[in-house]
Fold:
Amino acid sequence: MARIASATAVALGLLCARPPVPLSAQALRVPYQTFTLPNGLQVIVHEDHSVPVVAVNMWYHVGSSDEKPGRTGFAHLFEHIMFMGSQHVPTGEFDRLLEAAGADNNGSTSEDRTNYYEDGPANALPLMLYLDADRMGFLLPEMTAEKVDLQRGVVQNERRQSYENRPYGLAEENILERLYPANHPYHWPVIGSMADLQAASLEDVRQFFQKYYTPTNATLAIAGDITARDARQLVERYFGDIPRGPAVTRTPPPPVQVAGVVGAVLEDRVQLPRVYDAWHTVKAFSADDATLDVLANVLAGGRSSRLYRRLVYELQIATDVVAFQDGSRIDGKFEVYATARPGHDLGELQRVIDEELRKLADQAPTPREVERAQNTVEAQFLSRMERVGGFGGKADQLNFYNYFVGTPDYFQRDLERYARVTPAAVQRAVQTYLTGAHRVVLSVVPRGKPELAVSP
Amino acid sequence: MRAAVGGHAILVLAVAAAVLTASPPVRLSAQAVDRTKPPVLPPPPALRLPAVQTTTLPNGLTLAVVEMHKVPVVDVQLLVDAGAARDPSTAPGLATFTATMLQQGAGARSALDVADEAAFLGAQLGTGATFDGASASIHVPRRRLEAALDLLADVVLRPSFADSEIARQRELRAAQLVQQRDEPVAVASIAFPAIVYGRGHPYGHPLNGAWLLIVGDVTLAEARRLAAARFGGWERGDVPAFPNPPPPPRAAARTVYLIDKPGAAQSVVRIGHAGPARTTPDWFALEVLNTIVGGAFTSRLNQNLRETHGYTYGAFSQFAPRRLNGAFVALASVVTAKTDSSLVEFLKELRRIRDEAVAPPELAKAKAYLTLGLPGDFETTGGAAARFRELLAFGLPLDYYDHYVDRINAITGADVQRVAREYIDPDHFDIVVVGDKSQIEAGIKALNEGPIVYRDLWGQEIR
Structure:
């Protein structure tokens, strides 16, 4: 088995007082076979015979960043419509057939992609592929305005449940519209606006389907207790005659520059105020992406992290604090947020956050802090290897890596990105990206209490 | 995301299939595809579940070990009989507070040391309590199992309970309780049991001893050695017995409890009443019943409220597994303007399951969903641990899952109707609605489905 010692760990050793610890005793490997049908559908197959289950995971390379003005939320609405039946599968049968075979399914939409999965006993693979092929090849003949209306209602309720009726639920869209210019595809949230959801039409569905829901713009991953040979035969049978689609072209996103400190106050139905700091950073897998993940962990990963220790444990002025790097396909951002305890205002929290960022800019974190983050990441990677299906399981990950870096079995190399992060790199990342001069500072305060906000 | 359970609509609108491209379709398979009907599937794979082995340490601590060697991770759970049901009425929240305190300093470690060590090991350390029991758990890469068990042993056997840390946690919890009032789903989740069980219900029951459940990349012998070194000196104590409590009072008649959340975009609905213990012999029938009513995407509640009417993102039901009185609950978050209409549909479905026999295909689907989906629950160490933990927590036989498929398959439509009539009682529902009173009150009143009682954000009477 390969070990991750190599040049990177040696480099780490040169910078640290202690000898390098191999990040993982065993390299992560997810062997796969891949082939592409003449219609452009790329297929990735991974055999794992440990449990008699199979996971089918389809990625369509389309997300909310592909939406046109006035139709925000459409990619996600479309995801819902994909479950409403197709030419040979009457409405409702998609779910009924899968459940009767002991299988589960779901879908999700992000800025960058839409994925669909079916998980179940290994013998159900032909059914899963039959159903996925029918909605890829034959969705429109049975599409109606009624289906669109019905899922419009469901999605609007999803927006109410997960955003409007949830405290601080509208913070994210307020951050995005200030972080990204109006012509940037990350300017709006995946869920979209109520008005735009209301405006979506049957014609929109047709156009979106014809442009994006084609074998050419999709990748299918199959993982589990199956043979690559059987999987290939079934894929060819069900997907082989679906016609190609047009090539999808995208214009490069406009540059992002947060002009100074952009302050905003949102009054919400909350008891306790919360401050959000957001910075523009880098996209997924670019040079500093993993470093920023480690930085987030040093700042707020667990109760011994710097911000938790100061804000929640020592000063006791906050109930919680969260930090994360959110690297997406074409861009990235970094956020820190913290909720004030009763009797404290957001200015107090912001001062401590700024102090801690300044400390990290002046002096690198300790090697132990970085190693702690690396160990946490390694454990997450291992746990992800336990499952073939679902969101984040091996099939989904194969599709993720394939789309983002072009190599399905990128598990070990992804982990090595984290092994290479040094304390000095974390310090540089703070200096480079988390500057006080260019950021969005959003204060969410109880209605009628704007005085609790961070003052400009 | 699409949520949990779905599908419906009737439509025949023939539109010519769009021509997507100029290139002709390529047929790869010599075999013509028949898309007019779903493929006939080969028989499902034979059931192959990981085995549980047990061994007892000299001090009486029982180990349950499940070997799973695919991925080098281990999940460890220590279960003790110290659930919230034992909270004295003068100190509600004691069990969960104590569980939280376990992590706030233990052995030679300070509160921050405990957190730092867990993070450094890449371990997820958890301590918590439900009504029925308390637990401490750790999920960790195999390579760091020994250090993780050292930490777990400190937390369980040598908690410091320092006054300063108790004060700190008390302050934090007070602030979190303020925060909880903002979250309508949390409000409903707190108010519903408060209303169903009533105040001061001494929900509790003695369990003998503790269990240490270890699932993952470890052998029985290793597990025993590692556990004995850390927990072998744990002295056995007597768990004080609780008197068997009276069953919770059934609502005299169906009542709507309205909790006002001005400006809420949705109403959070919980409908139900007390239910059977997890150990009832009817549990298998109840699982089938619940799958049909609200336990899967294609269940009746979700099909009706979401896929037919679009009132909600998802509607479900559950028989809460508890050692004594469980609870039946049907739930959804529904758009404010359709709160009354949603209640109509909820009640319609919950009456229909009693009044009409379940059609054979619907019954077959539910049974297949439960039995064929079983292996997937045991795929991960965490998943398998949750399944076995349920057996230990409720004193169910460890070979339970070996007979599970047969027991489910033996359930008939008559069984389902019988348990529906026995365990779902619409005449005695407590209906809890957390929403904007000014928008929903008139509509609910007009339903005439029972008196409306107003409650505060904790489900308590408003004085």
Observations:
- Residues 1-24 of chain A have pLDDT under 50 and may be disordered.
- The CA atoms of residues 61 and 217 of chain A lie 6 Å apart.
